[in-house]
Design brief:
This protein is α/β, with parallel strands linked by helices and 664 residues long. It contains 20 helices and 19 strands. Keywords: Glycosyltransferase, Golgi apparatus, Membrane, Signal-anchor, Transferase, Transmembrane, Transmembrane helix.
Length: 664
């Protein structure tokens, strides 16, 4: 009997060894395949063909004709490198351009000659869109007004890796870089931002280590590949299935057409400002310099400023007029700026002086031509200015209808890397003593991460998209109608002759304006609330006359939180009524906006008339007087004047740096 059991035991031992060997081989094969294939494909290669349909439970469908995006320079993304083009950015082939920036002689055309969807050169308050409608905000260039550069030398001696769009069944994206772009795409998803937030929250609730830079989602008609576990796949699939139930035939709402989940009131912004002042979140320089010591010394002098009486300053407009006055004097006496000469036109050193994005152009022009603050020796500089135009970056490099802005951000990333490699100043502070001015809606996205420590003067001052109160500067968005005379049509009727309670006219950009018209269009003769005004010169002048004749000018947000109507209202001496949650008003760190404006929460639009009528007449007259007093702080001049818009912008950059700097 014992002889019979011996062979059986040997068989069991051999069987276990065989199973162990098969397991080792399978595991080795899986690891090898994972190095060559996306994670999901490695698993699929082990499944029989009849079982593949079960794996398709994790699919996220983008539709049968989704484009394939081959993203360059992201090792976490599965790439089709054979289809990636390396496109230099210094020169632009005139034969390929839709809107040429060069004339027949090879010279750059003037800014006002550049064709756009919006008539930036209109002589009155409104822009003309493609349908002939008038809009004082203008059409915000929603992915339809740019050209693709081709071969040539770069501005800095390095090539730009372009984003390539081609027809395919797959669509590879990195969630961190691209998911925010989906709000502009007509996909089979519903509210993709909600999907993103819910998926990230589910991931954070797990025990897995998480790094946002490695959270990658690959979508196709058959697979979903992730870097993490099956639990993440299940979370993403359930989120996608919930949002994918909407009708394919309907146009999905863009992200900018949906109400924000975070609402920051003026009181909350004040708390954030004071908290940041106390914590001083700036990165400490690796080694302090004499220039750092000079800025650091200015802080105590500003905080201890004694009371002043300056006839040029109207005290009720400011948080603390004495601190502002002392800080401004120290800026004039101390501040020195180095302007980088790196970079070529049209993205660099070519300011746009008309239209919606004129603020960044006027600041660039006046900064580069300034002799009081600018120094040629960077060793003498307290701050460093990067003179690029976010508008011209979009105009030059954005691939039409691609719904992808990665190459724009990559361009600025390589620009910053070039500066860091060429000069010692960036690396000393991590860019904290560098600043930029950008008025295009996309500027926050384009400067994210690689310019994260820089001081950013942005028109799109939205706390939900990375604007840092106490470090960044809210740049006023100004619609300039004439580069030669930016003060054309300045002023308005006296308060006694303003018989219109409130006025608004414009296109239905975003989600706030349709709500405004729903409640107040044609509801009250004292509330002149319109949609797009009919085209024509008479209507343009009528728009201006309405603002000059109204007590309150309604300034609702459009696609983004900022609107040129805020400065327009001040320009025409009309009390601005700002309806834009999360918008940080211009020069927030020094001006008291409650002194000369009305800020209404988006949820209170149904009560708009009651809110305005509840303001006593004496209070209105006081605010209207203050609007006239604050007006000079929002005006551009060919030759800058004390306390004007150029100097106010520069002061806020200086002021935030003073309160931000930390020394060892």
């Amino acid at each position: 009997m014992g002889y019979l059991l011996l062979p059986c035991n040997l068989c069991h031992i051999q069987t276990r060894r065989c199973l162990l060997l098969v397991g080792v081989v399978a595991f080795t094969y899986l690891i090898f395949q994972s190095l060559l294939l996306p994670y999901g494909d490695a698993l699929r290669s082990l499944l029989p063909e009849d079982a593949i349909h079960k794996y398709d439970h994790y699919n996220i469908q983008f539709g049968p004709n989704s484009p394939k995006l081959a993203t360059v320079r992201n090792p976490l993304t599965v790439l089709d490198l054979a289809n990636v083009s390396t496109t230099p950015i210094g020169k632009i082939d005139k034969g390929f351009q839709r809107d040429n920036l060069l004339n027949s002689k090879g010279e750059y055309v003037k800014e006002e000659e550049i064709p756009r969807e919006v008539d930036f050169g209109s002589e009155s308050g409104n822009n003309v869109d493609a349908n002939g409608n008038l809009e004082s905000d203008g059409t915000k260039n929603r992915a339809n007004d740019s050209i693709l550069p081709v071969d040539g030398e770069t501005s800095f001696g390095f090539p730009l890796k372009q984003q390539v769009v081609k027809p395919s069944d797959t669509n590879t994206i990195t969630l961190e870089n691209e998911l925010e772009d989906f709000g502009q795409m007509d996909l089979d998803f519903g509210e993709l931002e909600e999907f993103k937030n819910s998926s990230l929250q589910k991931l954070e609730d797990t025990d897995m280590p998480f790094n946002s830079s490695t959270f990658m989602l690959q979508t196709s008609t058959s697979t979903v590949n992730t870097i993490h576990s099956h639990q993440l796949l299940s979370n993403l699939s359930s989120s996608a299935s919930e949002t994918n139930s909407t009708s394919i035939g309907k146009r999905k709402k863009m992200k900018s057409e949906l109400p924000p989940k975070t609402v920051t009131t003026l009181e909350e912004m004040n708390r954030i400002l004071f908290r940041h002042r106390r914590s001083s979140r700036a990165m400490r320089p690796r080694r302090s310099s004499l220039r750092d010591q000079e800025i650091f010394s200015a802080k105590s002098l500003i905080v201890q400023a004694s009371a002043v009486n300056d006839p040029e300053l109207y005290a009720p407009l400011f948080r603390n007029v004495s601190m502002f006055k002392r800080s401004y004097e120290l800026m004039e006496r101390t501040l020195k700026i180095y302007v980088y000469r790196d970079g070529k036109k049209p993205i660099f050193h070519q300011p746009i002086l008309k239209g919606l994005y004129a603020s960044e152009g006027w600041f660039m022009k006046l900064m580069e031509g300034n002799k009081r603050f600018v120094v040629k020796d960077p060793r003498k500089a307290h701050l460093f200015y990067m003179p690029f135009s976010s508008r011209m970056l979009e105009y030059t490099l954005y691939v039409r209808n691609s719904h992808n802005r990665t190459n724009l951000r990559q361009f600025l990333k390589e620009y910053a890397e070039n500066i860091a490699a060429k000069y010692p100043y960036w690396n000393r502070t991590g860019g904290a003593d560098h600043f930029l001015a950008g008025c295009h809606d996309w500027a926050p996205y384009e400067t994210r991460h690689h310019m994260e420590h820089c001081i950013k003067a942005l028109c799109n001052a939205d706390v939900t998209v990375g604007f840092k109160i106490g470090r960044d500067v809210s740049l006023p968005e100004t619609y300039v109608r004439s580069a030669r005379n930016p003060l054309r049509d300045l002023g308005g009727k006296p308060a006694s002759q303003r018989h219109i309670l409130a006025f608004y006219a414009g296109n239905m950009h975003g989600y706030v304006r349709p709500i405004l018209l729903k409640y107040w269009k044609d509801k009250n003769p004292d509330m002149k609330i319109f949609g797009p005004m009919p085209p024509g010169v008479a209507s343009k002048m009528n728009y201006i006359q309405h603002m000059k004749s109204s007590k309150y000018c309604i300034c609702p947000k459009g696609y983004e939180v900022n609107s040129p109507r805020v400065v327009e209202a001040i320009f025409y001496e009309c009390v601005p009524v700002i309806i834009s949650d999360n918008f940080v008003p211009p020069f927030f760190e020094v001006l008291d906006w409650e002194a000369f404006s009305v800020i209404v929460a988006e949820k209170d639009i149904p009560n708009l008339q009651d809110i305005l009528l509840s303001i006593p007449k004496d209070r209105y007259l006081e605010m209207q007087l203050r609007v006239r007093k604050v007006q000079k702080h929002f005006l551009w001049h060919a030759k800058p004047l004390k306390y004007d818009l150029f100097h106010m912008t520069l002061h806020s950059i200086w002021y935030n740096r003073v309160f931000q700097i930390k020394l060892r």
